[in-house]
């Protein structure tokens, strides 16, 4: 794993955006794996800026998001569909038919998981996957205990994850109990992975990810086995890492 040391959140976001821009300029029909949460918001701002400055076009790009809550429709401002359109897709020239998220409002959720996984394969797999990390080591919504062999599947969200994400909702009761997420196996098939970490509250998780044992109890630890992972971490996030 290669660690890029960013000074702060802004620099982490800029460095990540330049990787995306470089990838898309190298291969205009790149397949991007995208993430939600607070961490990549700055990255998306920088990507929009690069697009506005005429430095990149997304018109041939396909994207797949990691996850979506179950039971929230597309108009719900807490859905990841809404987040992605609001914070990225509506501001760049990506074809919205090629900007994919799992449909957490599908009638048959299992069928939706199978369809999504197949769509990723049919697109030729993910060239660059952006990841954040949850405090408990989750990536996407793969909670501790998830088998490393899982592909896209339905998960019951950990109480701690619901609490952590409650800040975006009116109350904890409004946070969905389930989500659809790409599995660890789906994520590990990406050709390249860029994981973003910012802030001192993520310092312990980053240390475990880099130096801890590879275990399903800490899903992100599997990334130690991927051959092309870059971690972009700001100074605060690196505060518990032995140099
Ligand atoms: N499903 C998302 C993850 O993809 C994200 O990486 C994580 C951390 O979020 P944040 O960046 O807000 O700390 O939480 C959410 O639950």
TrEMBL record:
- Name the keywords, alphabetized: Carbohydrate metabolism, Hydrolase
Q: Name one GO molecular function term.
A: glucosamine-6-phosphate deaminase activity
- Glucosamine/galactosamine-6-phosphate isomerase domain spans which residues? 9-229
- What reaction is this protein's catalytic activity? alpha-D-glucosamine 6-phosphate + H2O = beta-D-fructose 6-phosphate + NH4(+)
Hydrolase among keywords: yes
Provide the E.C. number(s) assigned to this enzyme: 3.5.99.6
- Give the annotated active site: 67, 136, 138, 143
Pathway this chain belongs to: Amino-sugar metabolism; N-acetylneuraminate degradation; D-fructose 6-phosphate from N-acetylneuraminate: step 5/5
Which Pfam family is one of those matched by this entry? Glucosamine_iso
Q: Which InterPro entries match?
A: Glc/Gal-6P_isomerase (IPR006148), Glucosamine6P_isomerase (IPR004547), Glucosamine6P_isomerase_CS (IPR018321), NagB/RpiA_transferase-like (IPR037171)
Domain of life of the source: Bacteria
Q: Identify the CDD domains for this entry.
A: GlcN6P_deaminase
- Kindly list any coiled-coil regions of this protein: none
Q: Which PANTHER family match?
A: GLUCOSAMINE-6-PHOSPHATE ISOMERASE
Q: Which family does it belong to?
A: Belongs to the glucosamine/galactosamine-6-phosphate isomerase family. NagB subfamily.
Q: What does this protein do?
A: Catalyzes the reversible isomerization-deamination of glucosamine 6-phosphate (GlcN6P) to form fructose 6-phosphate (Fru6P) and ammonium ion.
Q: Which HAMAP family match?
A: GlcN6P_deamin
Q: What is this protein called?
A: Glucosamine-6-phosphate deaminase
* Organism this protein belongs to: Oceanobacillus jeddahense
Q: Which gene encodes it?
A: nagB
């Amino acid at each position: 794993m290669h660690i890029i040391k960013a000074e702060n959140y802004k620099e982490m976001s800029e460095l990540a955006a330049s990787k995306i821009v470089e990838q898309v300029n190298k291969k205009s029909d790149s397949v991007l794996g995208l993430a939600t949460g607070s961490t990549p918001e700055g990255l998306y701002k920088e990507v929009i800026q690069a697009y506005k400055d005429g430095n990149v076009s997304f018109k041939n790009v396909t994207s797949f998001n990691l996850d979506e809550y179950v039971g929230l429709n597309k108009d719900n401002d807490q859905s990841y569909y809404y987040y992605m359109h609001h914070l990225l897709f509506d501001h760049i020239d990506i074809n919205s038919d090629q900007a994919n998220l799992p449909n957490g409002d599908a009638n048959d959720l299992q069928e939706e998981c199978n369809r999504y996984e197949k769509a990723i394969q049919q697109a030729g797999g993910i060239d660059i996957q952006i990841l954040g990390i949850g405090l408990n080591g989750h990536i996407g919504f793969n909670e501790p205990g998830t088998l490393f062999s899982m592909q896209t599947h339905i998960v019951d969200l950990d109480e701690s994850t619901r609490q952590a994400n409650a800040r975006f909702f009116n109350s904890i009761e409004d946070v969905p109990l389930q989500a659809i997420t790409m599995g660890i196996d789906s994520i590990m098939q990406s050709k390249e992975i860029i994981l973003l970490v910012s802030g001192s509250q993520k310092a312990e998780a980053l240390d475990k990810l880099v130096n801890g044992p590879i275990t399903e109890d800490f899903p992100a630890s599997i990334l130690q086995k991927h051959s092309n992972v870059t971690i972009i971490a700001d100074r605060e996030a690196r505060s518990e890492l032995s140099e």
